């Protein structure tokens, strides 16, 4: 009978030769004789990762570090398994330990960079990649992750160079193909993006990530049926693939298939984008049960615009019970405190009173069986408070012209901001209308500041817009709001203001595919791009609307 050391030597030999099944069997034999052999446990975890058995990989890697807490490779493997299970914070802790034990550990730097990127820290991810490449310049994966970090930092040319360097070193590196495709898409090079996506799938037709990424590209091109087929293929390859399930739900909602879409939307908590934001409470999830005498916590989960849009459901829940707590980001507390007298609004991070059930805001459409023709849209459902209204009325002074509020850009960190936002200069034709223009944005870029300086007829208030209470008051004093698809659109819609919302060629899930109206905000009209990145036609369309508004106001 072979000794454990002999079995381990042969197992490693088979592993390095690519004979995974034989190596796995031999490692198991080692563990029969020595259950705590850290090399066998760690290498079995690596094999399980290759088989996409991430729970098993985590179990084995955890056993390895328990056997030898100073084994950097086992910590790195454990971190990778945690990353694949979307437990990114714990993954980073494992990578930290691996690097602390082995400061020159290139793979751990690269893996930590990938986790940091998924958590929304592209600058830190970039630093880790640069450290990895300083240690080993020809590390293909590090070049690929660096490309992804540069993409999120909007350094697109540098990102392309990094992805191309990765592919020169490893022509079948799927992550680099997929990353390059997304950059090309953002740059409007759609034909190239599809071709690169095709190459990714050709490298490994069993990789669900490639089908998911291809689906996102096809959505951006409005090739919706093909995109659905890609998401279905990704899910068929990996039934628990949260990103593909969530992406499919967004597309179904965009297509108006609400029953399927809202049900599948619950997969968002398994996606890499939101898994770290999931909340965990002792109270059970409310799913439409009887609530007499009970208290329900509803809580915001995503952006300011999402919170404003879906806060409309809180008063509907109050019909089931008189005790509703609505937890929202602190900047929205004042605005939403006037939503309903039966709803107590609390800032996120403040102590919560007792509650019997809890539910995230964006699960409510599913619970209320929302359909496109059954969207609760009692407009307005938000209002500005009298004190802020009075102050802004004095600040604006009298006017004889229609007042138009302008918002041309959203938060730059949002993944799809490249498609939804524009520069202030795009709005120049609107200024030909005989209206009084007010910038509803507080934060602007240096380039936009130059434009505003050149167009003093657009009044900008900067830090005077200190809170959403100021935004609500200023928007309430407008005769018309013109905005891109950001929180300003939801605020204006919830206030019941006449609003023109500019939409990207492939719009967000809430706006449907062709409609010029929106059942979410009856006083809003949707102005859609006819080609990706081209705002000329939508701008001219709104210009005509504003000229008509000015003519009506003057009695012409």
Write the layout of secondary structure elements.
Blueprint (H helix, E strand, L loop, with lengths): L3 H13 L3 H14 L4 H13 L3 H14 L4 H13 L3 H14 L4 H13 L3 H14 L4 H13 L3 H14 L4 H13 L3 H14 L4 H13 L3 H14 L4 H13 L3 H7 L30 E5 L4 H7 L3 H5 L4 E6 L4 H4 L6 E5 L9 E4 L3 H4 L18 H11 L6 E5 L9 H4 L15 E4 L6 H9 L3 E3 L7 H9 L3 E5 L2 H8 L4 E5 L20 E5 L7 H19 L2
Parallel strand pairs: 1-2, 1-4, 2-3, 5-6, 5-8, 6-7, 8-9, 9-10
Write a concise keyword list for the protein shown above.
Serine Threonine Protein Phosphatase 5, Tetratricopeptide repeat; alpha/beta; 6-stranded parallel sheet; 556 residues; 26 helices; 8% strand; Rossmann fold; 3 domains; 4-stranded parallel sheet; 52% helix; globular
Tally of individual domains: 3
Number of helical runs? 26
The counted number of beta strands is 10
Question: What share of residues is helical?
Answer: 40-55%
Outline type: globular
pLDDT < 50 runs, ≥5 residues: none
Category by helix and strand content: alpha/beta
Spatial arrangement of strands, main beta sheet:
7-6-5-8-9-10
CATH class of the largest domain: Mainly Alpha
% residues in beta strands = 5-15%
Which sheet architecture does the biggest sheet show? 6 strands, parallel
Radius of gyration (CA) equals: 27 Å
CATH fold node name of the largest domain: Serine Threonine Protein Phosphatase 5, Tetratricopeptide repeat
CATH architecture of the largest domain: Alpha Horseshoe
Distance between the termini: 101 Å
What is the residue-mean pLDDT, rounded to a whole number? 91
In CATH, what is the homologous superfamily of the largest domain?
Tetratricopeptide repeat domain
